[in-house]
Amino acid sequence: MTVGERIGKEHLTYGQGASAELVAMVTIGAADAYGLPASTTHVLSLGMAGTIAANGSGFEWGTGRSVVLTWVLTLPASIALAGSPYWVFRLLF
Asked: What is d(CA 90, CA 30) in angstroms, rounded to the nearest whole number?
């Protein structure tokens, strides 16, 4: 089971999947054009959530909270994971 399958209470229709992919493509393309960082996984998950909300097919709030929490924690966790070994190596060498 994927995150996409757990975001909604029903399976995505072909139209919902195509809409989510199209929005992800445009968003990632715009981020690239402006030199901004973007996560394809985060963008596509949000696109799927948007189609589920628009279709009224039952958004799973528990999964939504987990996805948002992951988005919020990604930056500080990445900083800590990259910064810790850097400071250790800097002190040793």
From this structure: 37
